[in-house]
UniProtKB/TrEMBL annotation:
<dbReference type="InterPro" id="IPR019342">
    <property type="entry name" value="NADH_UbQ_OxRdtase_FeS-su5"/>
</dbReference>
<keyword id="KW-0472">Membrane</keyword>
<dbReference type="GO" id="GO:0005743">
    <property type="term" value="C:mitochondrial inner membrane"/>
</dbReference>
<comment type="similarity">
    <text>Belongs to the complex I NDUFS5 subunit family.</text>
</comment>
<comment type="subunit">
    <text>Mammalian complex I is composed of 45 different subunits. This is a component of the iron-sulfur (IP) fragment of the enzyme.</text>
</comment>
<keyword id="KW-0813">Transport</keyword>
<keyword id="KW-0679">Respiratory chain</keyword>
<feature type="disulfide bond">
    <location>
        <begin position="24"/>
        <end position="34"/>
    </location>
</feature>
<dbReference type="GO" id="GO:0005758">
    <property type="term" value="C:mitochondrial intermembrane space"/>
</dbReference>
<keyword id="KW-1015">Disulfide bond</keyword>
<feature type="disulfide bond">
    <location>
        <begin position="14"/>
        <end position="44"/>
    </location>
</feature>
<comment type="function">
    <text>Accessory subunit of the mitochondrial membrane respiratory chain NADH dehydrogenase (Complex I), that is believed not to be involved in catalysis. Complex I functions in the transfer of electrons from NADH to the respiratory chain. The immediate electron acceptor for the enzyme is believed to be ubiquinone.</text>
</comment>
<dbReference type="GO" id="GO:0032981">
    <property type="term" value="P:mitochondrial respiratory chain complex I assembly"/>
</dbReference>
<protein>
    <recommendedName>
        <fullName>NADH dehydrogenase [ubiquinone] iron-sulfur protein 5</fullName>
    </recommendedName>
</protein>
<keyword id="KW-0999">Mitochondrion inner membrane</keyword>
<keyword id="KW-0496">Mitochondrion</keyword>
<keyword id="KW-0249">Electron transport</keyword>
């Protein structure tokens, strides 16, 4: 990676970000002026923000699935403990007293 060449021999995927950062750093009076370029380059290398977003999405999906399972279990419990639902096709015999 330090050479600027990727695995296939061409430029690495982050090389354009490195060039942008190096150009900014060379022209800047203060290093903190190139903070955005540095963050872009580091993100390209490590994908930390991308991984954090993916983790948050995965957590939200798991939370929604757990909620749906809980709701489904409640509905199944209600149906299992309630009386059968009649649709009125068969009328019960009148009880004799």
């Amino acid at each position: 990676m330090a050479s600027g060449f990727g695995y296939t021999g061409g430029p690495s995927r982050c090389f354009p970000f490195w060039q942008e950062f190096a150009k900014c750093y060379a022209q800047a009076d203060f290093p903190n002026q190139c903070k955005a370029q540095k963050e872009d380059y580091v993100e390209c290398l490590h994908h930390t923000q991308e991984k954090a977003r993916a983790k948050a999405l995965r957590h939200e999906l798991q939370t929604q699935q757990a909620h749906q399972a809980h709701v489904g279990k409640q509905e199944a419990d209600i149906k299992a403990t309630s009386a059968p639902i009649g649709v009125g096709l068969i009328k019960p015999l009148p009880e004799e007293s």
